[in-house]
Amino acid sequence: MAGEKPGLLRRMFGGGAEPAEDTVADEAREAEAPAPPPALADAPPTAPDEPESRGGWFQRLRRGLSRSSGALSGSISSLFTQRKLDAATLEEFEDALIQADLGVDTAGAVTEALRKGRFGKELSEDEVKGILAAEVEKALAPVAKPLVLGGRKPEVILVVGVNGTGKTTTIGKLAAKFRDDGKTVMLAAGDTFRAAAIEQLKIWGQRTGAPVVARDIGADAAGLAFDALERARAEGVDVLLIDTAGRLQNRTELMAELEKIVRVLKKQDPQAPHHVLLTLDATTGQNALSQVEIFGRIAGVTGLVMTKLDGTARGGILVAIAARYGLPVHFIGIGEGIDDLEPFAANDFARAIAGLA
After folding, report:
1. How far apart are CA 83 and CA 86, in angstroms?
2. Domain with CATH 3.40.50.300 in the chain
């Protein structure tokens, strides 16, 4: 690829290497720190939010991706204003795209699209943003897939991820969506390490009318999952959503416990879990790549949910993940409300990250 920076690429795309020691230390402290009370720990509102128009959701998405789109818009403005397109400009813009976490493949596709038929010409900012949005959408469109239930009873959905990525909140929002679709739902409080997580899931159960299978703090999570599936079958529940403890992807003993949960579920149903959703914090950046790789290998991740798309989000990483792993992206979350989870739309995301209205 023209303009490739070996040092930069090695630092940013180290083949799924483990996160830096300071990142691991920060995550470990977060995982060990006591959680706030359930009422303050992103608990659901007392009543569902008013339905939001698609336009309103897109504006929130634009604000959520403002960090990424702002950096890219600044680069576009400085590089392309009153300047003819040349090799140096393309190289600098490719670097800017990589630094925005879009990934090497997408950065190369964008610069190649700019080069074709436009070399030596002046381009407006809107032209560049339009090409950027088109190439990002090409990368994302194949993975923008809804979460489709297969008609099994129960349909078992296991939700995994590192600590603090919004697993429990995502489960509550999914429970509300399934309920609104006329499905019966059961929740399993598989995060047996944190009392606050168990209580938080019970609150979501109350809000959504879903029974919650829970045990005392420190109980065996795999045994709880087994019991939950047994009960869900006996009661004819449509969907069983299983929460899990947050775990660092480089902690072998914690990942072994997750593997055990999957193994125990398969003893009752060889096809279970039918869906394994990995929640990714949009503020994480490059570390999300190793999370996808390792959780995919251990738990058999079938789809992604990107959470915490707010003004600090580094949403470009979703483009790099799509290009590298091709996993379906089912939902994105902006905010903590019960309705703040939307099906992933490639066109909306691409336009928002490119800074287009």
Report:
1. 9
2. 143-354
CA dihedral 165, 169, 172, 178 (to 10 degrees): -50
Three-state DSSP at 244 gives coil
Instruction: Tell me the per-residue pLDDT of 204-262, one tens digit each, with 9 for 90 and over.
Output: 999 999 999 999 999 999 999 999 999 999 999 999 999 998 876 667 777 888 999 99
Cβ(348)–Cβ(322) under 8 Å?
no
Q: Nearest CA to 75 among 34, 139, 29, 132?
A: 132
Report which DSSP code applies to 84: B
Strand partners, 169: none
Higher pLDDT, 217 or 54: 217
Range in 19-33, 116-130, 250-264, 302-316 the model is least confident about: 19-33
Query: Class for domain 143-354, per CATH?
Result: alpha beta
Class of domain 56-142: mainly alpha
Query: How confident is the model over 42-51, as a mean pLDDT?
Result: 39
- DSSP per position, 17-77: PPPPHHHHHHHHHHHHSPPPPTTTSSPPPSSPPPP--HHHHHHHHHHHTHHHHHHHHHHHH
Angle, helices 252-268 vs 287-299, to 10°: value is: 40
Record the pTM: 0.83
Q: What is the mean pLDDT of the chain?
A: 84
Taking Cα atoms as reference points, which of 201, 184, 192 lies closest to residue 240? Answer: 184
Q: At what angle do helices 125-140 and 66-80 cross, to 10 degrees?
A: 140
In eight-state DSSP terms, residue 333 is: E
Helix (H) or strand (E) segment spanning residue 155: strand 155-160
Which residue type is seen at 163? Answer: N
Q: Where in the chain is the domain with CATH 1.20.120.140?
A: 56-142
| Structure-block tokens of residue 299 | 């738990």
* pLDDT-based confidence at residue 55 (cuts at 50, 70, 90): low
First to last CA, the chain: 31
